[in-house]
UniProtKB/TrEMBL annotation:
Protein name per UniProt: DUF411 domain-containing protein
Signal peptide region: 1-24
Species for this entry: Spartinivicinus poritis
A Pfam family this chain is assigned to: DUF411
Superkingdom, taxonomy of origin: Bacteria
Keywords per UniProt: Signal
InterPro entries per the UniProt record, alphabetical: DUF411, Thioredoxin-like_sf
């Protein structure tokens, strides 16, 4: 009886351990909570938040009329600004209509000396800026701590965003 008892409990323990290991591997490897600062009236920001949430991010939306101050606080240069600013729990900034898959890649890579990413302006066809089948190619810019920038990703078609 003791052998059967031990065998049964050993199997249960192994299955439990396997479940825990499998669950840990399924957990996201990136920081998935974003605080999104936006104007209370901005509809495209709402659409971008929907895009981000559909990709698995959790958002905390903060409606504010002090967006310029927020952007200055997070060291986003005027020429890199857009309509909304998202901030990860780690302090990375994501300015504008950046595709979720590019943000996920950035959070996995965490480039040295980077503060985040930007899609300046509001390119037609970018996530949240969809207008029928219109699309305007754009670049996702890597923002560095020293104020310099470089191209992080080129988005040449609507399909590349997803």
């Amino acid at each position: 009886m003791n052998v059967i008892y031990l065998l049964r409990h050993s199997v249960i323990f192994c299955l439990s351990l396997f479940s825990i290991i499998t669950f840990a591997q399924d957990k996201p490897t990136v920081d998935t909570l974003l605080q999104v600062y936006k104007s209370p009236q901005c509809g495209c920001c709402v659409k971008w938040v929907d895009h981000i949430e559909q990709a698995g991010f959790t958002t905390q939306v903060i409606n504010t009329n002090a967006l310029a101050e927020i952007k200055t606080q997070f060291a986003i240069a005027p020429k890199q600004r857009s309509c909304h600013t998202a901030v990860s729990q780690q302090g990375y900034v994501f300015e504008g209509h950046i595709p979720a898959k590019v943000i996920k890649r950035f959070l996995q890579e965490q480039p040295d000396n980077a503060i985040g990413l930007s899609v300046a302006g509001m390119p037609v066809g970018s996530p949240g800026m969809e207008v029928e089948n219109n699309f305007m190619p754009y670049q996702v810019i890597l923002l560095m701590k020293d104020g310099t920038t470089q191209t992080y990703a080129k988005i040449d078609s609507a399909k590349q965003q997803f």
